[in-house]
Amino acid sequence: MTERHLRRPEVEAATGLSRSSIYAMMDTDEFPRPVRIGKRAVAWPETAISEWLSNRPTTKPLAG
């Protein structure tokens, strides 16, 4: 079975991150890098995004 790949708009929608946030996080190795799917096109493997989302730290509610 072939893996589904997500283009940037789909990644933005799935993660809630902006384009600039995605690329800034990639520069600091906090976000998975895309794979090349064409001469001028990249996409992220769906499993990489799912894994990143499941391992993403969640914020704890403030005690009050």
UniProtKB/TrEMBL annotation:
The organism named in the record is Falsiruegeria litorea
At the top level of its lineage, which domain of life is listed?
Bacteria
Query: What is the protein name stated in its UniProt record?
Result: AlpA family phage regulatory protein
Pfam families in the record, alphabetically? Answer: Phage_AlpA
For this protein, the record's InterPro entries field holds: AlpA, Prophage_regulatory_activator
